[in-house]
Amino acid sequence: xxxxxxxxYGVTGYTGRLVAEYLREHNVPFTxxxxxxxxxxxxxxxxxxxxxxxxxIAEVEHNTEALTQLMKGSRVMCNMVGPFMKYGSExxxxxxxxxxxYSDTNGEQNWMMHAESTWGAAFAERGLLLAPGIxxxxxxxxxxxxxxxxTPGLDTLDILVLWKGFPTYASTQxxxxxxxAEFFYLEQNQYVKWDPYAKAEVMVPGQxxxxxxxxxxxxxxxxxxxxxxxxANCKVMGGVFERSVMEGVVQITGVVEEKIKxxxxxxxxxxxxxxxxSLQSGMPPRxxxxxxxxxxxxxxxxxxxxxxxxxxxxxxxxxxxxLQAYAAYHLLQAPPQRVGFASGCQAxxxxxxxxxxxxxxxxxxxxxxxxxxxxx
Length: 376
Prior knowledge:
With 376 residues, the chain is of the alpha/beta class. It folds into 2 domains: 6-135 and 318-359, Rossmann fold, CATH 3.40.50.720; 136-316 and 362-370, 2-Layer Sandwich (Dihydrodipicolinate Reductase, domain 2), CATH 3.30.360. It is built from 13 helices and 17 strands. The protein has helices spanning 14-25, 37-44, 64-71, 84-98, 109-125, 136-148, 169-178, 221-225, 243-260, 265-279, 316-333, 344-348, 350-359, and strands at residues 6-9, 30-34, 55-59, 76-79, 101-104, 129-131, 156-163, 184-187, 190-193, 200-203, 210-213, 233-240, 293-302, 305-314, 340-341, 367-370, 373-374. The strands form 4 sheets. Strands 3-2-1-4-5-6-15 form a 7-stranded parallel beta sheet, with helices on both faces. The protein has a 6-stranded mixed beta sheet with strand order 12-7-13-14-16-17. It has a two-stranded antiparallel ribbon with strand order 8-9. Strand 2, helix 2 and strand 3 (55-59) form a beta-alpha-beta unit.
């Protein structure tokens, strides 16, 4: 049983360390949990300022019973153990059994849909938050979309998310895992399947050069906005600025479609995991705000109106770590605005999350135009 109010499950990964760092900055006590206590201690020793944090370490097996026992002493889990469609169920079920809020950083649209349909109502009945997908690649764009939607009469969202850097080991594993799944955009409030080979040349706000964008597994936004009466249509594309990486994903998609999808599920998982590890097996360097930039751009439209919001940021993994830490910090002091299955903005408010990111210097002030007029 944890003696701390927050559990970071999977703290030894790149993002888990950042969550620990930002929980320390919020003065939130936490338990760093995972399968290898010695490894956890080695990793946390390298987190800046960790000597001033109030934390303990818990070694725990990855099963519902063990995780439930761990969560009985805590109120919030920040789960970093993915791919989530493969490993997430045990953690969610443990939080539900223990009466704790749940959040993760997933980028798997099929996991989002599964979590909503399987546990959303049960979490809501207990007054608990089920918030998968609180991360830069989803929440920062969601903030921009909600700023656009403050203008009435807009029902269509065209979202672009780009960042400069390379995916971590865990992110790469997730990218490969979603290649075998179907993924969707939202059209007239119905899910429509993307072509697995879909790609686009996109205009990047603030620069002359274009970029290649992919549906990136459909992302979280269509799932969140399907429950929003303001929105009927939502398409999302994104990726990294480095074109060679994006071209590589396109090539890998072809291999997956032709050679891996016909295989049994277990063999699919094995081959995809091996392919992902061959591309990214180490720990990327700590982000540099002068290098690791991000752009979230949202065009919102309706029959008689238009809005466009751009949020320039830096250090997308730091944005994710901060958003996770703030979600836990908030939940320890006040209930969320929505219980059950909810996004970061639905649970905490888009302007509040924007303010948090700005206060830590991770995003600039949004550039918002409505019907061609700059309003922010």
